[in-house]
Write a structure and sequence with these properties.
The protein has 325 residues and is an alpha/beta fold. It is built from 13 helices and ten strands. α2 crosses α11 and α6 packs across α10.
């Protein structure tokens, strides 16, 4: 897969005269929001729009938005009307009002989050970046160039790997309960680990949101070394609860999640689920790796399934998991 640099992306992005301002961190968890943002970046590249970002009110941040955790990759704007009117989904009248406010503010027609079209069937041909590939390949390229943690977060990532004593070769899983009664609730940690076909003594890093479930699989697989950043007080991910945490607690929770996903981006094999944002991100970024799979979706269906909305993915997950049990 072609490797891109932030400088290459910025040069091409800033060459476009028309622009789209995207509002990140509106109402979903971090990795769902990240998925929406990368789709918007692809839309802009494919259609000749300069991508700009509004994220200072992002629900995953404490006032700085994207650059609280990652290095900047585009120009950010700060006008307050974006908070209320630059949304992905809204009525026709609010869409018109949003465009009017943008024109009044910038003196030109500006596209907004509501104007982004998700185009997973499109072939992306962007000669200036050397991109000529499918949606999945283009998505992975952009995801990797913007995954550039701030020095503080990068140091936390190094410290965590050292503290966990991760070996050079290790596997990864996600055991997730999450917000919704989706297919992932029907999947046991035992099934997920079995799908890895691990050898005795193998080290497995687990992205988990429920410490009790993590302890269950540790007891079931005592010959494996299962490590995680999941905290003893965690009983499942609840997005609304995260949003209402004190700022420093929220930041710590988000950083632990980013560290976990960074560790999984580098594992030799990974088993996740198509109903969870972090897993979907990992499955898309590492789509060309045959050792990266979903417990609840056949491998031949995976690329198409990952482009569907959560309800459609949950339906696939439930059908497939029922066949496993």
């Amino acid at each position: 897969m072609k490797q891109l640099e932030i400088s290459d992306y910025r040069k091409v992005n800033e060459s476009y005269h028309r622009r789209l301002i995207y509002h990140a961190g509106i109402d979903c968890g971090f990795f769902v929001e990240l998925n929406y943002m990368i789709n918007a970046m692809l839309y802009c590249l494919a259609n000749g729009y300069r991508f700009q970002l509004y994220s200072e009110d992002a629900n995953f941040g404490t006032g700085k938005g994207w650059t609280e955790y990652f290095q900047p990759f585009c120009e950010e704007v700060h006008e307050p009307f974006h908070h209320k009117y630059n949304l992905r989904h809204q009525s026709i009248w609010r869409r018109i009002l949003a465009h009017w406010l943008a024109f009044r503010t910038y003196g030109e027609y500006v596209r907004l989050s509501q104007d982004v079209a998700h185009e997973p069937d499109k072939f992306y041909h962007i000669p200036a970046l050397g991109i000529s590939c499918s949606y999945t390949e283009a998505y992975a390229m952009l995801a990797r160039i913007i995954w550039q943690p701030q020095p503080e977060v990068q140091q936390r990532m190094k410290d965590a790997r050292h503290r966990l004593s991760l070996p050079e070769i290790y596997s990864g899983i996600q055991i997730w309960e999450g917000n919704n009664a989706t297919g992932s609730r029907l999947i046991s940690g035992w099934q997920i680990i079995q799908a890895l076909h691990p050898q005795d003594g193998e080290c497995i890093f687990a992205l988990a949101d429920n410490y009790q479930q993590l302890e269950i699989v540790r007891n079931e697989f005592q010959k494996l070394r299962i490590v995680s950043l999941c905290q003893p007080q965690e009983t499942g991910y609840h997005h609304q609860a995260l949003e209402h945490l004190p700022p420093q607690e929220k930041k710590e929770s988000v950083i632990r999640l980013l560290i976990s996903v960074d560790i999984l981006l580098q594992c030799c094999a990974f088993v996740g689920t198509i109903t969870s944002g972090p897993s979907v991100f990992l499955l898309k970024v590492r789509a060309d790796d045959p050792c990266v799979t979903a417990i609840d979706c056949p491998q031949d269906m995976l690329p198409d399934s990952l482009t569907l909305n959560i309800d459609e993915r949950a339906a696939i997950s439930r059908r497939f998991v029922i066949r496993l049990t």
